[in-house]
């Protein structure tokens, strides 16, 4: 499936499930009871089975170096990229986002970021 088709599929899923996923996140983490047992679900489609941990930034971005970190805005604590994950179901992770990640990684590997500037024109690099 082409890159554009994957983006369209992601958009369709997000529109279909977005409200339910956001409602669950809001209930679980903002308004739910403190002693409530939180049942993890895919952050994208809401599916509760076959969950994986997907890195917010792919490991290749920070070269799998556990020393790389960022500081959170909320409490100014250091958070290591390698530990920063979100739950995705196997389908969303492998069938949707993994193929997009490979496409983006391939595109970046073909550009010398120290010399070249990437300019988007009409949605194309």
Name the descriptors.
two-stranded antiparallel sheet, 125 residues, alpha+beta, 39% helix
- SSE pattern, N- to C-terminal: HEEEEH
The percentage of residues in β strands lies in: 5-15%
The chain-level structural class is alpha+beta
Give the radius of gyration: 17 Å
Q: Could you give the distance between the termini?
A: 19 Å
Number of helices: 2
The residue fraction in helices comes out at 25-40%
Contiguous uncertain segments of 5+ residues: none
Mean pLDDT: 81
Strand order of the largest sheet: 1-4
Sum up the overall morphology in one term: globular
Description:
It is a single chain. By secondary structure, the chain is α+β, with helices and mostly antiparallel strands. Helix content is about 40%, strand content about 15%. The strands form two sheets. It has a two-stranded antiparallel ribbon. It has a two-stranded antiparallel sheet with strand order 2-3. Strand 2 and strand 3 form a beta hairpin. Helix 1 packs across helix 2. The longest helix is centred in the N-terminal third of the chain and has 29 residues. It starts with a helix and ends in a 16-residue tail after the last helix. About 10% of the residues are buried.
Question: Care to give the gist of this entry?
Answer:
By secondary structure, this protein is an alpha+beta fold.
Write the layout of secondary structure elements.
Blueprint: H1 3-31, E1 51-55, E2 69-71, E3 78-80, E4 85-89, H2 90-109
Antiparallel strand pairs: 1-4, 2-3
Helix pairs in contact: 1-2
């Amino acid at each position: 499936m082409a890159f554009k088709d994957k983006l369209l599929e992601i958009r369709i899923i997000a529109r279909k499930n977005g409200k339910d996923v956001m409602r669950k996140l809001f209930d679980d983490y903002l308004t739910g009871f403190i002693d409530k047992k939180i049942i993890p679900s895919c952050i994208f489609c809401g599916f509760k089975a076959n969950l994986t941990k997907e890195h917010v930034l792919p490991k290749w971005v920070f070269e799998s170096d556990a020393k790389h970190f960022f500081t959170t805005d909320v409490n100014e604590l250091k958070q290591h990229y390698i530990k920063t994950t979100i739950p995705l179901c196997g389908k969303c992770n492998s069938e949707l986002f993994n193929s997009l990640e490979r496409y983006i990684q391939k595109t970046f590997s073909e550009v010398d970021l120290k010399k070249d500037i990437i300019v988007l024109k009409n949605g194309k690099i």
